[in-house]
Amino acid sequence: MRLLTLTPADSFFFKGHMMSEMGLPSQWSGLFPPRPNTVYGALRSAYIHRFSTFEQFRKGSDSQIKAWMGTPTRMGTFRQQAVLIRQNNELLLPVPMDYRIMRTTLEDGQSMLVADALTLKENNSLSNVSAGYTLTRGDQAGRAGKDVDHSGHFVTLGQWQQAVFHHKQMQDIISLSQIVDDYMKTGIKIDAATSKAEDSHFFQMKMLTMRQDCELVSLVSDDGPDFSEVPLVSLGAENRPWYLQQTEMEWSLWSSNQMQQLEQSLYETSIARIILLTPLVLPEDCPLTDRDVPADWMWELVNGVQVQLVTWVTGRPELYGGWDIVANRPKPRTMMLPAGTVFYVKVRQPDIPALLQAASGFTLFAGETEGRDHEGFGFAVIAGTQ
What is the pTM of this model? Predict the structure, then answer.
């Protein structure tokens, strides 16, 4: 797998669905990390700018660009697997939502964040008879402490692997405040004709700066286009410059010994955990958008494997959309689940070998979300329950 490292040359801002007309609204708070489609579009544009022209891209007259990057109305073969954060040369992964993050106070009076694993148990609650299984606070996860929202909390790849595989506590949790700093940019809109300030167009934007030794990384497939001759990418609001560097990376989440243990766990329990590392845009009419998922729904996960959803844990869904440049109108809004969402699924034993082939990473709903799988949405890994 190739790793595209993105380092900002200056401050930056990612705005999401907010109005971009000055004065409406007067204060903007951005997103971080950016959504995968934002990074995908910037990489796509930078490659086209370096090796061709946007006129040829629009007409589809450059065969190589058309093969890699497609046309304004369809995707090419360029595929981004995921967008992650890296700090001190270590990848950061989101804390799974089947962990309870809490703030505890140490003996010296200082506070720290820890995350304890929740326990999957059969549901015996009379208040929710439709759920066959539920996640409970057992052992350390049941101790006293102030709960903290999962959004914007990460751990290093090495600690994530060990904690998730062995259901151990996560420590040294990294918050966004340890990755980016912010400052308020204040200004007014200037009339292009008169060079005077326009009334009611005072604005404030919360700009971000990346802390030292932090960067964005894009994971792309080995058989994709070569970005080694693309030095810069225009990314985010105001097309701020980001330095781009391409390196090779061996992506294998689980060791061979862990894969053997995972296989044994699946044969013993027939239950797997599917953990999202990037947000997931749900297809239209997906049962996951309903309040109660049908008990008989068979979910085709990957490699032709069909599984049955046991239970799942997620955060507050968002609406995914944007502006369709070709149609010159807003894109239809669809539901998006946050990174860190965890699905518990029941697997038929004959399907376990095929499922294990995707244990280190695959894309949920590939081919069902109108290109979102090309952009890096829905990248997930597989773990056991014991």
Answer: 0.90
Residue 142 has phi, psi (to 5 degrees) of -90, 0
Residue found by looking up tokens 């996640």 in the block: 135
Identify the CA nearest to 276 among candidates 170, 179, 363, 183: 363
Please compute, for residue 362, the number of CA atoms within 13 A of its CA located in the half-sphere on the CB side: 19
How is residue 4 written in tokens? 């595209």
Rg for the chain (alpha carbons), in Å? 22
**Those residues with Cβ within 8 angstroms of residue 105's Cβ, 6 or more apart along the chain or in another chain:** 111
Q: Give the HSE-up count for residue 6: Cα atoms under 13 Å, Cβ half-sphere.
A: 24
Looking at the predicted structure, is the pLDDT value of residue 352 above 80? yes
- CA-nearest of 106, 92, 122 to 32 is 92
Per-residue pLDDT of 75-85, as tens digits, reads 899 999 999 99
- Residue 154, C-beta contacts closer than 8 angstroms, at least 6 positions apart: 85, 92, 93, 94, 95, 173, 174, 175, 179
